[in-house]
Amino acid sequence: MNYFRLKLNRALELKERLLRELLPARMRVNSLSDGLNNEILAMTATPSEHARYLRRVVRDAAFGARYKVLFGDIYQLAAATLPSFDFVTLFHLAEFAAPDPARRLDDVGLLTLFLAKLSAHGRLLFYSNSSGRRATERILAHYEARQALVLEEKFRSLLIYRAGRGDSR
Ligand SMILES: C[S@@+](CC[C@H](N)C(=O)[O-])C[C@H]1O[C@@H](n2cnc3c(N)ncnc32)[C@H](O)[C@@H]1O
C-alpha cells in the first residue's frame, strides 16, 4: 500500500496506475506474480462466488495471502471491523439495496463508512454505467455539495473521488 501512498501525486499517474496495476490486481490478474503486494479486501453476497474463492485458497494458500474475500452483506459492515484503505471501489452502490430496517447501513451510510476509512491520500471509485447510477449521482452530489468528496477525474466509466475537508455525513 505504501507504493500508492508515495507516488499518488498526479491524476495522470493515478489513471495509469489504476489501469495497469490496481484494477488488474483487484481482479486477481497477475496479483500473485506482479510483485506489487497490494493488500486486497473484497466482499461478495453470492455463495457460489465465495465457495470458488474458498476452493482456490484451499488448493493454493498463497492465493489468499493478500487477497481476502468476505462473505456477507456489505450493508452489515461496521467501522470496528474494517481497516483503512487506499482505494475503495463502490461500483455497485445503490444497485442492490432495497430499504431494509434490519440492515445496519443504507447506501449513504455505506459511503460514509468507507469515506471514514479512506487513508489520507485515498481514493473512492464509482462506476458511471452502474444500474444504480442515478441514485449514486444523487448521493455523490450531496457529498460534493458539502465538500466531503471532491471529484478528481472522470476516466472512461470510472469516477475518481478524493476526500474533501467538509462534513462527511
Ligand atoms: C454484478 S457482480 C460484480 C462483480 C464485480 N467483479 C465487482 O465487484 O465489481 C455484483 C457483486 O456484488 C455482490 N453483492 C451484491 N449485493 C451485495 C451485498 N449486499 N453485500 C455484498 N456484496 C454484494 C454480489 O455478490 C456480486 O459479487
How would you describe this protein?
By secondary structure, the chain is an alpha/beta fold. The protein has a domain at 75-163. 34% of the residues lie in helices and 22% in strands. The protein contains 5 helices and 6 strands, in the order ααβαββαβαββ. The chain has helices at 2-7, 11-26, 47-59, 107-116, 133-145, and strands spanning 40-44, 67-71, 85-89, 118-127, 149-155, 158-163. Strands 3-4-6-5 form a 4-stranded mixed β-sheet. A two-stranded parallel sheet has the order 1-2. Strand 5 (149-155) and strand 6 form a beta hairpin. The longest helix has 16 residues, at 11-26. The radius of gyration is 16 Å and the shape is globular. The structure holds S-adenosylmethionine (SAM). S-adenosylmethionine binds next to strand 1.
Topology (elements, then pairings):
Layout: H1 2-7, H2 11-26, E1 40-44, H3 47-59, E2 67-71, E3 85-89, H4 107-116, E4 118-127, H5 133-145, E5 149-155, E6 158-163
Parallel strand pairs: 1-2, 3-4
Antiparallel strand pairs: 4-6, 5-6
Bound molecules: S-adenosylmethionine.
S-adenosylmethionine is lined by residues 43-46, 49, 73-75, 91-92, 96.
Strand content: 15-25%
What structural category arises from helix and sheet content? alpha/beta
Bound molecules: S-adenosylmethionine
H and E string: HHEHEEHEHEE
Approximate helicity band: 25-40%
How do the strands line up in the largest sheet?
3-4-6-5
The backbone outline, from C-alpha atoms, is globular
Rg for CA atoms? 16 Å
The separation of the N and C termini measures 27 Å
Largest sheet: 4 strands, mixed
